[in-house]
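Exercise 7. Given the components listed, write out the predicted structure of the assembled complex. Treat all entries as one system.
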Amino acid sequence: MHSESSADLLIDARGLHTYYGASHILHGVDFSIRRGEAVGLMGRNGMGKSTLLKTMLGLVRARSGSVHVKGEDATRAAPHRIARAGIAYVPEGRGIFPNLSVRENLVMAARAGVDGRREWTYERVLQTFPRLGERIGHGGGQLSGGEQQMLTIGRALMTNPDLLILDEATEGLAPLIAREIMRIVSLVKESGIATVIVDKNFGAVNAITDRNVILVKGEVVHEGAAEDLRGRPEVHLRHLGV
Amino acid sequence: MDFHFFLIQLMNGVQYGLLLFLLSAGLTLVFGIMGIINIAHGSFYMIGAYLAWSLTGKLGSFWLALPAGIVLTVALGMLLEWLVIKRLYHRDLLYQVLATYGLILVCEELRSVLWGDDVRGFNIPEALNQSIQLSETLSYPVYRLWISGVCLAVAVLLYWVIQHTRLGMKIRAGASNREMVQSLGIDIQIVYRIVFAAGVTLAALAGMIAAPVSSVFPGMGNHVLIICFVVVVIGGLGSVKGALVASVMIGLVDTFGKVLEFSVGGVRLLPELSSMTVYVLMAVILLWRPEGLFGKKL
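Answer.
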């Protein structure tokens, strides 16, 4: 019960404190995302971006604070329940199944969306990522980094999500491939799916997001519309080192 | 060696090997997918055999006892996963071995309470109680051919489910990245429950179909446990294909080790040392490939 619009919020996290063993990673983080919105989550390495995502996804438990998914308390929910509520995750390091073929990686994830939508089918994913079609019978482990990233995004779309969370979307990819990934992410956004993007390439992220959040040492130090950040190089320098 | 005699030994070896596959496939599957070492696996073989014996008595027919026994062991597998095994996923090997050793004791005690401590035997079902005449003096029992057929059918079914169904894809994905499977909205707990129940049922089915030819006795589960682990180690931990190849190899080596004669410098090695042949095979294969035939590189 935060506000009347709480059901519009796909994820509403409040006051998250998360620990890894004895180290205190998140220090009371608030984070929310609305339907159809694109949010950039920024900050240098080790500032708690991945931990925040994992806490919201139920993969790491918060010691205190709450996570609401579409208005319902999901603070202690199992990861598969949160995924079934329409939240798809593309983890850092991709998380493809190397022992499954490209086709199997996609087919195993296929599911209708929360409201029964089946906009993203196997065929549509292959249309969006023609490269995957060429390598359909290959093992997931045989793909290049860029192809693996396309596969994880395609696999996430097969679940017909309302929200796509991308951790380190273009890390370690050649600039051309990275641009292609960003183009696809903005395509996904235009199709009405909300996105949270973590990426080092500040300019590329800022170009497609509506709003940005900057984390420093497990705290939100800046939150605002993407335009705000564009004209403020001192914020970039201080918090992002760019 | 006479050709027909050789043929019979060959069929015996293959039949023993295929039964061994049915028996050990669940052990390697549960380890490969869930990372659980289940030393109570042999007990499910014993439970299968006793179920076949007791249900055949109660229902009046082996052909009714078989499906009833399968249903019961699927339920048993699901119950045990929920009750015991799911507590072991995040624990190390020692806990797994201790907990499943506890299961052996529980199974033996339950067997003693339910069915007593006597050795039981029952007849091969009428329809299959025949032999095929190979030569004037040699024949081969139809029931043993049927055992081989059932094991082969199960092997094909297992291959199909794992390689060609969505459940199989989820199972294989779960073996490589459990967290990611959950984040795709799949309840890994249910997948594991199905895999464990399948493992229990495969072992129990082996016990059921073997019961009419081998007698049914207390401790028969522990008897087969060691050879199951030999199969899994030779085939490669977690590899079902490896278990199939290893089982048939062991079946042949064990069978021919008992009937061939072989001596070195006047000392008869076979069949005198036939009980060692399987272990010699394992030692040789591990020297050559420490990870087993189809295991992941160590």
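Discussion: Residues 7 and 183 of chain B are 54 Å apart (CA to CA). The mean pLDDT of chain B is 93.
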